[in-house]
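in:
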């Protein structure tokens, strides 16, 4: 079972058991993780699930597609090299994921 490590801007961390095939966003929303809203439900029409993906975890995901790339320009917080929409990060069996919630979303 994949685990998702959500780090808040204050450094606190919450670890949630995920399910392969679910997104980091849906896992957060289902478990009430602060700062990840997922207003559009994962249809790439908002940026309320913006996270910073740990650099070491980038190897497990393809880069942002064109639509995600455009939406990342609309986030409430500064875009960084590791910025991703958590709705596009799909969990895989045996792969734990570490993300940080931007300060402006909490």
């Amino acid at each position: 079972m994949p685990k998702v490590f959500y780090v808040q801007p204050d450094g606190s961390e919450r670890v949630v058991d995920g399910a392969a095939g679910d997104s980091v966003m849906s896992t957060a929303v289902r478990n009430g993780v602060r700062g990840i809203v997922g207003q559009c439900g994962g249809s790439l029409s908002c940026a309320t699930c913006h996270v910073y993906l740990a650099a070491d975890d980038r190897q497990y995901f393809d880069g942002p597609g064109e639509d995600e790339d455009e939406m990342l320009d609309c986030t409430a917080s500064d875009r960084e090299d590791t910025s991703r929409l958590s709705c596009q990060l799909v969990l895989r069996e045996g792969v734990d994921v570490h993300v940080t919630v931007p300060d402006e979303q909490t």
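note: The radius of gyration is 12 Å.
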